[in-house]
Each structure stands twice: as structure tokens, then as C-alpha cells.
Write a structure and sequence with these properties.
The protein has two domains: 5-136, Rossmann fold; 165-443, tm_1862 like domain (pyruvate-formate lyase- activating enzyme, Alpha-Beta Horseshoe), CATH 3.80.30.20. Helix content is 39%, strand content 16%. The chain is built from 18 helices and 16 strands. The protein has helices at 26-32, 71-82, 93-97, 99-103, 117-127, 151-157, 159-162, 183-186, 196-206, 221-224, 226-237, 256-264, 293-305, 323-336, 353-360, 387-401, 404-416, 423-446; strands spanning 5-10, 16-17, 20-21, 41-45, 60-65, 87-91, 108-111, 133-135, 167-168, 171-172, 192-193, 210-213, 243-248, 267-275, 309-316, 340-345. Strand 2 and strand 3 form a beta hairpin. It starts with a strand and ends in a 10-residue tail after the last helix. Bound molecules: iron/sulfur cluster. Residues 174, 176-178, 181, 183-184, 216-217, 249, 273, 286, 288 line the site of iron/sulfur cluster.
Length: 456
């Protein structure tokens, strides 16, 4: 069969904010860039517009990428698209974690990163030799120019017009093995690095001035690859960037020289996984956090003294947590000087050690869909609280953390760290993170009214 076009779909989730999408389909942009130039390719983002499914036909190949909480929406879309006689490939995080579950209903599944198998799938479809299952078993080397974004993809996505914050990836993987995290299975245990020159070329070609790094644990490279980080920061310092943010762990505070270079490279904020203030939870935290409040305070102070903000990430519902953990965290956030804060409920994602243990203990709550696996719903029976107590404690904390007065307090305190002439340029950055979390919390609580509408 001669292929007519390839369509890659991001299922609906966050919607738009003031006309623009929140979650850029960065992975799909890279997969679209692997499509040979003589085959037309389109990216359809359901958060941006109703999908023109009626225009699809048997010569089109559709790929849908879905993480766990989007897999049910992906299935609704796939069933609708298949009625057009169109073949649908399901890839992404969820199918990588539990391939057999998705294989029960998908035409084709793509397990793993897909950089090797996606081009093969396109060839096989074109030749009429498509298989049911493709497994990308080896981690793709990021140092060989893999999936460089094509100009036609950038033109079509039109990221400056359609999305708030461009995404970028510089490193991938995490050698930690926190019991609740899927990174080791989705991104691999070995840290992989993109060449600095390639990163700079991509930033310049995309003409992006701000970005959010999708890297699992960028900050860990301060220890693992200090020379690479120095080279990267010196290169980024020369670019006309307005700011960028990344995910990290606390040890970045132990590298003051790299922190200084990071600031010169226009880094705005670290999202740091403190995870818990309850020291009894440290076994679950992969050795990166120990529930030591004084250490956390010192990390925040050190990073901020280098001119970089700190967003604290906390998870609730570990086996030693009670309401006291929530109250302690609230007091800590008030007094620690954090710039913004993210509070999430522990979520036993498929194929994690945590889920295995909870399943063995019969503590996973029954569920017909995966839509509650959004880190804001309680999906298992906690050890020292009831399900209702955990849910109510989480709601109590979020109402306090994301109240307008707390957001204003944290944001104004951030602004006060900057000289007056720079304040106007910092306004958006100072408020946006907390407001984003407030919106996400409200959205998650309203999601039951919103879920699984028919495909348009
Ligand atoms: S450090 Fe972060 S990315 Fe790494 S395994 Fe733990 S939670 Fe996942």
C-alpha cells in the first residue's frame, strides 16, 4: 500500500489557557522528524482543536502517544479512527509499561522509545508488512544526532503561536530507582547526553527564548558529568535567552561553581524533588531525599543566593504519612522561602516497585479507567490513614498552598530578590508556576465532569 500521510496525535488533557496550549507535543515533534521527507506528516493536538478524523482513510497511518492517564482517551480516539479504515499505532509511556494490556485493543503497539522502530513501522506499513508489535529494546544514543527536528515540523507546530512554554531535552535517564517512579523503565538508568552543539543549534533554529527541560533529573549531572555541564552552561550563556527551568535533586547545592555558571546561562528555576519531610519515608526516595528539613532549608538558601529560584516538589501518601506530614509541609513551605510548590499524591503507576508491593498487599483500589492516575487522586489504600483521610488532607493542603494570598506572598518575595529594573521581566515567571499548579489542582478536581467525551 502506498502511504498517503502520517498523522501523530496528542490526546486531549490540559486544554488551552488564553488560547494557547500548555503541553507541547515535543516527543511527537521528534517522531514526526523521523518520517521521510517524501511522506507528508501532521501533528494533531486535541488540546488545540477538534480532530478532523473524518478526513482520514486507509492509506493513512496514525500514531497516538499516551501516558497512563491519557490511555483511555487514546483508546476512544483509536476506535473512532479505525472506523475510517485507518491503521492506528499506540506508543508512549503506558504501552511501554504494560504492553500486553494495550495490545488487547490496539492495531499495533510500539513499546519503548521508538527511535528505531518508528521508521520501521512506517516502512512496513508502506510495504504492506505491518506487524502487531514493535519493541525498541536498546536505548537510543543521544550523541549521534537522533531525531533532529525537521524545519517542516517546526513550521507546522508553530510553537510560538500555539504554546506557552517550549519544551527541550538535553539529557535523558536517571540512575536512581525511586520505588514510585517510571523513569528507569521509560528513560533508562544510564544518563544520556545530547551534544552541546546540537542543543545550541536547536535553540537557535527554533528561536526560543525560554524553555522547560523535559529531562528526568537534569541536576544529577552536576555530579555525574560536571565537565559536560560546564561546557553546556558556557554555551548557553552566549545565547539571548530570557530564562529556563529544569528538574533536579538537592545535590546541586553542593556545586556552587556550577550554580554560578547555571545562572550565567540564564537558568531561572530548579524544580527540586524534596519529596517528603517525613524521614521515615527515605527508603522509598531512592537515596536522594531523607526528610531532613534543615538540609532542605540550606539547599533552598544556597540555590537562591546564586540567583536561581526553587520550586519544591512534594509527594504525599507514603506508608509513614499521616495528617501531621501535611501540616509539617505547610509550615515548612511558609517558612522556607520556596518560590513555588508542587504537592502530589503518591500514584502507583504500572510496572513500578511500589505498585507491585501494593498489589501483593491487596491495597490497589479497583478502577475501570486510568484517568485517576494523575497524581491528584487517591488510587490505593494508605497504611496509616483511610482513603478519605488522605484525600481530605491533600485537599486541605492544596487549598492552603494555592490560595491567592499564599501565591501572591511567594511571588512577591521572588520579585523582591531582583533589582527593580528587572522586576517587569520577572513578573510572568514569578507568578506562572504557582498559578499553573493552582489551575492543575482545580482541573483535576473537576475532571470527573469532563472525562471521556466522545471523539470529535
Ligand atoms: S530521582 Fe526523580 S527521575 Fe530519578 S528515579 Fe527518583 S523520582 Fe524518578
Amino acid at each position: 500500500m502506498a502511504i498517503r500521510k502520517v498523522v501523530l496525535i496528542q490526546p486531549r488533557r490540559d486544554g488551552r489557557m488564553m488560547g494557547k496550549g500548555i503541553s507541547q507535543p515535543y516527543t511527537l515533534m521528534r517522531l514526526a522528524s523521523l518520517v521521510p521527507l517524501d511522506i507528508p506528516v501532521e501533528i494533531w493536538d486535541e488540546d488545540l482543536r477538534a480532530l478532523p478524523i473524518d478526513t482520514l482513510g486507509p492509506q493513512d497511518l496514525v500514531g497516538i502517544s499516551a501516558k497512563t492517564l491519557l490511555i483511555d482517551r487514546a483508546r476512544v480516539l483509536a476506535e473512532r479512527i479505525k472506523k475510517q479504515g485507518t491503521t492506528v499505532v499506540i506508543g508512549g509511556t503506558h504501552v511501554t509499561l504494560v504492553p500486553d494490556e494495550v495490545a488487547e485493543w490496539a492495531d499495533v503497539i510500539a513499546v519503548g522509545e521508538g527511535y528505531r522502530t518508528w521508521p520501521q513501522i512506517i516502512r512496513d506499513f508502506d510495504n504492506g508488512t505491518l506487524q502487531k508489535r514493535y519493541v525498541d529494546e536498546a536505548w537510543a544514543p543521544l550523541d549521534s544526532g537522533i531525531a533532529v527536528l525537521q524545519d517542516r515540523v517546526l513550521e507546522q507546530v508553530d510553537e510560538h503561536r500555539n504554546y506557552w512554554t517550549p519544551y527541550l531535552e538535553i539529557t535523558r535517564g536517571c540512575p536512581r530507582n525511586c520505588t514510585f517512579c517510571t523513569a528507569i523503565r521509560v528513560s533508562g538508568q544510564k544518563m544520556r547526553l545530547r551534544p552541546v552543539g546540537e542543543v545550541v543549534e536547536e535553540i537557535e533554529r527554533r528561536q526560543i527564548k525560554r524553555f522547560f527541560l523535559t529531562d528526568d533529573n537534569f541536576g544529577l549531572n552536576f555530579r555525574l558529568h560536571p565537565e559536560y555541564m560546564e561546557e553546556l552552561f558556557r554555551a548557553l550563556a552566549k545565547l539571548p535567552l530570557r530564562g529556563w527551568t529544569c528538574q533536579s535533586e538537592q545535590m546541586v547545592a553542593d556545586f556552587p561553581d556550577l550554580l554560578a555558571l547555571a545562572r550565567e546561562a540564564h537558568m531561572d528555576k530548579f524544580f527540586i524533588g524534596f519529596e517528603s519531610l517525613n524521614p521515615d519515608n527515605r527508603r522509598e526516595l531512592g537515596g536522594k531525599a531523607k526528610g531532613n528539613a534543615e538540609r532542605y532549608r540550606s539547599v533552598i538558601k544556597t540555590v537562591q543566593e546564586h540567583g536561581i529560584g526553587v520550586v519544591g516538589l512534594f509527594v504525599f501518601g507514603f506508608d509513614h504519612d499521616t495528617f501531621a506530614t501535611f501540616d509539617q509541609t505547610y509550615q515548612f513551605v511558609r517558612s522556607s522561602g520556596l518560590d513555588s510548590v508542587s504537592a502530589t499524591v503518591l500514584t502507583p503507576f504500572p510496572a513500578t516497585e511500589q505498585r507491585t508491593q501494593l498489589l501483593a498487599a491487596g491495597r490497589i483500589l479497583p478502577h475501570d479507567t486510568w484517568e485517576d492516575y494523575d497524581t491528584a487522586h487517591v488510587t490505593y489504600v494508605p497504611a496509616l490513614m483511610t482513603v478519605d483521610e488522605l484525600r481530605d488532607s491533600y485537599d486541605w493542603l492544596c487549598r492552603k498552598l494555592y490560595s491567592p494570598s499564599m501565591i501572591a506572598h511567594r511571588s512577591l518575595r521572588q520579585l523582591a530578590r531582583h533589582p527593580l529594573p528587572k522586576v517587569p521581566k520577572r513578573l510572568v515567571s514569578a507568578f506562572s508556576t504557582d498559578l499553573g499548579y493552582r489551575r492543575a489542582y482545580n482541573f483535576r478536581n473537576n475532571y470527573a465532569n469532563n472525562a471521556l467525551q466522545p471523539a470529535s
